[in-house]
Amino acid sequence: MKINVIDCSVIGASHVRSGLPCQDSSSSYTGETYTIIAVADGHGDPSHDLSEIGARLAVHSATDILKKLADDVASQKDVLLSRMVRDDFPRLVVRRWREMVKDDFCNRPVSSEEEAATAVAIDEETVPYSRYGTTLIAAIVTETNVIYAQVGDGDIVLLREDGSNEIFSPNDQNLVGGATLSLSGHEAARRFSCGNSSVSGLRGLFLSTDGLRNCYEDDQAFIRLLSAIAGMVEKEGVESSINIIREQFVQFSQNGSGDDITLAAVIVPLRAEGKTSATKIEDVNAENTMITDSTEETPHDTNRRN
Amino acid sequence: MSTPELPNEVVKRDLHFFMLVDCSGSMGGAKIASLNHAVAEALPAIRDAVQGHPEVCVKFRAIKFSNTASWHIGSLTSADPIDNAYWNDLTASGGTETNQAISILLDALDVEMMPRRGYPPVCLLLSDGFCTNPDGYVAAIEKLNNLPWGKKAVRLAVAIGDESEYDEQELLRFVNVKDESGNPVFLKAHNSQELVHYIKWASVAASIGASVSKSKSTGGSSQHVILPSPTAAPISSQADVF
Predict the structure, then answer these.
(1) Structural domain tally of chain A?
(2) Per the CB < 8 Å rule, is A255 touching B212?
(3) How far apart are CA A39 and CA A169, in angstroms?
(4) Chain A positions in Cβ-Cβ contact with residue B212 (cut-off 8 Å)
(5) Which residue, B152, B175, B155, is CA-closest to A178?
(6) pLDDT tops 70 at residue B139
């Protein structure tokens, strides 16, 4: 199966205004028999002041753990991988993320004399994981399955060749107005949602932070955007499409959510000859706008496999 | 060669603003006149303030209460952008059924009625007296505190008139935000100038505070929005006191 992989982040309009960094991160990795994508949204509240680092470490942790699980079961059936993602991935990724956060915190320069004077030996109890708080969505696409895991807000969308779609979003009615589950939460491993779906008829798998979905009134408009992205990637190629997507996401943030926007996707070209994307891509002039690129820190951002 | 463009169906995110206005008999005279003037001035002030946040669409509604409570601007199912809001002056008479106003607010803050991806709503209570149904008031506040959007709302109050004429502790139950000094955002307007000033300040500060609120882990503190400390009202003569 020949696929295209994209991942990109843009800083939110409200972050630009208030001098905050982009607190989203994304990554992608393509192995011989599988592809991994991940997105993370560092919490923006001032109490999570190191969340942009937490988000970056989250996508790296997820990629590491999914690679390990996939390689461990390479000779076995995908059903086992699916079970391992459900049963083991949350615990393993939380542990890996906490190790990376602890390393980061231990190597962080002390910022004031007061901090130096009050510094204590760092152990599991004193690492301020919450300062690194972030959401995480990760997925692995094998030759037969799409397997995904999520803690916190953001969206997972599966588009099918026949035009149908499946959207997986957190549905906890208590989580409104910016409240979200977190990888830094005390029971984070127990708060993951995991699932799997067949790769048969897959047009695209999209993981996005809430800054993208929050630009849209309803799911239908959101799906039209993702369908258009799938068509654009197929028509324009990965590199050109990513540049266009970044430019337009900046505008979307300015006129929509105001938040950082991140998207990672695996897109499968339509199989039938002469078949065209359902969404027409119109040609217009695009403006250059400020962009931050999370892909520099990812294993790699594009690839293809047969 | 032109560049392809993605479909642009982007919409602003809603910020719902609810004003709960006491128009009981004790609000008569200078109080209600000042209040009408203050709210009429607050609407354009909010509009101007959020112009710097083009991704925000403030939708304004008002609930009036005396012997009963009802919608004054908007309704349970209809909330217009603040650009279209126009304040019709209220008149004062009757009791202070604050609990009924909060009951109407509870219906509007139900998860089925609110946009799931909206900003925390702003709820501003303006009152000069004791609730005539104190048990009902406590029960309504408890429901508000247990409602997801009630918890996330930016709730603040302006008390109007002499401090002996209202129950500060009762009104404080409504408030759930603090300023940067750690004080509940509970403003005391002793005269017309203070009332105009505080209603405008509270309306603008809460709207901006809600619109810049950021995501937060559920395990963190419940304080989700911190407002700046209120600015002082213009000094007025003793004769202006309500």
Answers:
(1) 1
(2) no
(3) 14
(4) 14, 18
(5) B152
(6) yes
CATH number, position B46: 3.40.50.410
pLDDT in tens, A138-192: 999 998 899 999 999 999 999 999 999 999 988 777 788 788 899 999 889 999 9
Q: Is A277 on the interface with B (CB under 8 A)?
A: no
ipTM computed for the complex: 0.83
For B153, the closest chain A residue by CA position comes to: A177
Q: What angle do CA A275, A281, A285 make, to 5 degrees?
A: 150
Q: Which domain holds residue A267?
A: 4-297
Q: Which domain CATH number covers A87? A: 3.60.40.10
Domain count, chain B: 1
Residue B74 lies in a domain: yes
Task: Give the domain extent around B180.
Answer: 13-121+145-213+224-233
Question: What's the alpha-carbon Rg for chain B, to the nearest Å?
Answer: 18
Amino acid at site A16: V
A177 min Cα distance to partner chain B (Å): 5
**Beta bridge mates, A233:** none
Q: Do B6 and A178 touch (CB under 8 A)?
A: no
Q: Do B54 and A213 touch (CB under 8 A)?
A: no
Each residue's pLDDT tens digit, A24-58: 999 999 988 899 999 999 998 888 999 999 999 99
Identify whether B138 is part of a domain: no
CB nearest to B10's CB, from A210, A252, A282 = A252
Q: What are the φ/ψ torsions at residue B219 (nearest 5 degrees)?
A: -80, -10
One-letter amino acid identity for A25? S
Domain for residue B164, yes or no? yes
- In the predicted model, is pLDDT for residue B150 greater than 90? yes
